[in-house]
Amino acid sequence: MIIQVNNLTKRYKNHLAVDNLSLAIPEGSIFGLLGPNGAGKTSFIRILTQITQADEGEILFGGEKLNSSHVLQIGYLPEERGLYKKMKVGEQLLYFAELKGMKSSEAKSRLKYWIDKFEVHTWLNKKVEELSKGMQQKVQFIATVIHQPKLLILDEPFSGFDPINAQVLTDEILNLRKEGATIIFSTHRMDSVELLCDHIALINRSKKVLDGPVHQIKQEHKSNLFELVYTGNTISSNPVFDAQEIWNEGDKRCVGIVPNQNISNRELLLNLMNQGIEPISFREKLPTMEEIFIKTVGISNLENHEENLAGK
Question: Are 157 and 188 in contact (CB under 8 A)?
């Protein structure tokens, strides 16, 4: 594990921002840090980047207790961008690279790599304030990765991007993981989580309420629902399963099926074919990360409400 978080707690006056948080972030993974606004994600990130300190608990970076030397191994793209508007793009990127410990010659070499990658040669002598929001976002991303950090923290990285540039950034994130970087990805876009993340942790009201590999979480939250596309006779519910039509296009139909008995997929399909249907596709329908997010946060909020009532 590149990051091990043990019983981390952070308070601001009367507000408990992070409550006894424990996490393990695998090296070389894309780790989704999810949660509603105000859940505690930003407070955790600020502790990890050593902007603030925890009140209790610890963070281990590569097995060592987090310390100031690790800052040079971290790249942080904050949701609130931090570029100098009056400074030229090229000068600014070199400045940020040298702040991260790079020599001038090495910084220029890495800058050329990213300039070619993003085709931004014409921006170097422009001031940041002269760029569009999407262009500024690219500059901020280059500033985040130019020193080749082991750990990248990306907070809403697709903000301000059109679909084409969002895909460019997606490709670069996947490529950075391929090259060995570990990426903490904080976002409200569940479609991005589905596409990118290997593991996720969901934080709500300062507490971790869900944690694990994405595929495992989906399996744990599945509802035994199958989706069948077919032609032939119309399917109706029977003692073996419940069926509900999803769509109908001419002689092709799609239904959602929930078995009523503990039967195998093969037995279920045979039962359907005996009704005169011709299967085109048959698959288990796993919940989306958005569905899991909404369900888990809702349950967590209800439990918190009940705890508050019990404490009165």
Answer: no
Estimate to the nearest angstrom the gap between the alpha carbon of 56 and the chain centroid.
Answer: 26
**Parallel, antiparallel or unpaired: strands 226-232 and 207-213:** unpaired
Dig out the tokens for 271 from the structure.
């039962």
pTM of the entire structure? Answer: 0.84
Report residue 238 as tokens: 């029977």
**Other Cβ atoms within 10 Å of 224 Cβ, number:** 10
Fold assignment, 3-219? Rossmann fold (3.40.50)
What is d(CA 41, CA 26) in angstroms, rounded to the nearest whole number?
18
Query: What would the pLDDT profile of 50-77 be if each residue is shown by its tens digit?
Result: 999 999 999 999 999 999 999 999 999 9
Sort 283 into a burial class: Cβ within 10 Å, 0-12 / 13-18 / 19+: exposed
- Domain borders along the chain are 3-219, 223-284
Distance (Å, rounded) from C-alpha 116 to C-alpha 310? 60
Region of residue 282 (left: phi > 0; alpha: psi -120 to 50; beta: else): beta
Q: Which long-range contacts (CB under 8 A, 24 or more apart) does 94-102 make?
A: 96/143, 96/146, 97/143, 97/146, 97/147, 100/72, 100/75, 100/146, 100/147, 100/149, 101/72, 101/147, 102/146, 102/147
